[in-house]
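Async update (no meeting this week)

Hi team, since we skipped the sync, here's where things stand on the single-chain job. The sequence we agreed to prioritize is pasted below, unchanged from the tracker. I ran it this morning and attached the output directly underneath so nobody has to dig for it. Comments welcome in thread, and please keep replies under the output.
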Amino acid sequence: MRLPFPATALRDRLDGLGRWLAPLGLRLLLAWEYIESGREKWRGVNWFDSVQADFPLPLRWLPSALNWHAATWLELLGGACLLLGVATRASAALLIGLTVVATAAVHWPAQWDTLAALAEGYAISDRGQGNYKLPLLFVAMLLPLLLQGGGRLSVDAWLARRHPAARAHSDALAWGGFALAAAVPLGWLLPGPALALAALGAALLAAAAWQRCHGAVGPLW
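Output:
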């Protein structure tokens, strides 16, 4: 259905503003949160010893001091990169991994046997395990930055002006790679769904390879 001219003009202008402002809002808010968390660790005392056994493998095998300093610097440097829009996609990916590790070690319910029991943990509280709402919101906010970058008000966009824009692809290779990558952190929380997602990703990559061999490469939609 074709929109009336005023609605089309409004949509186009909102789309144009969104390329500048939508990622900026996410970057500024997330940069503040992660830098503040990193500063608290920098000035605080290492408490990872108390949750080291809850870290996903292989992180639980590492010294707690190493995990503490890695988390501190990843939050400080990753937050600074988001603030400036430098290496936005890589920073978002690393911070998603860090947030999922924190969820597994601190925020995930210690015991749950039904989806209803798991849903009770979708809360914000100071009771320790069973309050994963806030980190889940952070991951949801980081995903657009991972997939679409830092927007036009970023150092990444300034650097990209030196290179011609690449054509976006949403083909089996892209979806398969994303599914396999997402299955890794998901496996730290929900192994069953992560295994299914990994199988789906492998099937999509196999389909992409078949398409490439038969010269049928193209977008899924």
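Quick observations from my side:
Residues 53 and 79 are 27 Å apart (CA to CA).
Residues 16-166 form one domain.
Reply here if anything looks off.
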